[in-house]
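Justification of computing resources. Each target in the renewal requires a structure prediction run like the one illustrated here; the chain below, 231 residues long, is used simply to show the kind of job we budget for.
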Amino acid sequence: MSWSNNRSGRRGYHHGNLREALIQGVLDLIAEKGPAGVTIADAARAAGVSSAAPYRHFRDREALLAEVARRGFEQFEAQLAGAWNRGEPDPISALGRMGAAYLGFARAEPAYYAAMFEAGVPGDVDPALRQAGDRAFGVVREAAERVVALVPPAQRPPALMVALHVWALTHGIASLFGRADAARRPLPMSPEDLLEAAVLVYLRGFGLAGGPPPGDAPPRAGPWGPVPNSR
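Resulting structure tokens:
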């Protein structure tokens, strides 16, 4: 299995830039053979330094991959938050943009995405990695809280449960159908269309996005069907 969108060229080590050279080397290696094949020695060779040089900055392979994953989550959070845009103009259409941004990041940054979700680095290896991942999930949770607030209180599902469902659904589509490499499964529609349809079905279970609005006001138009007006 290979990861496409490989960064072009190897960046050799320049004085004072060893850390960045190692990070770039790891991204190149993940693009070539996936995160499981990355070793400290490989990263050193990719950066053009001795096998001992990486230990100036990273205690072991897990610490190096954790740093790559942390950077990925920071970029990921920024893209999700930008697409969500505080839920404007309404939470359901903003949720649609956020889902598209999720798929877009997985496609545009497959090496980072693999480091974040496929490298198997425990979150407790680096507190900064765990915090970056939590902040990214926090955007999804905020979206879920805003969306479930549209449901009448008696039928309102737990926001955390909805956030986990949306995360799992989007991640599954990104991993199976939205990859930028040969591992992508063929699909007779775009991953964005598949996600839109899946979320539409999911939201309809709560009476949203095509279901009856909780109030008397007519629903507004959204990309996944009518958007109920909250009170």
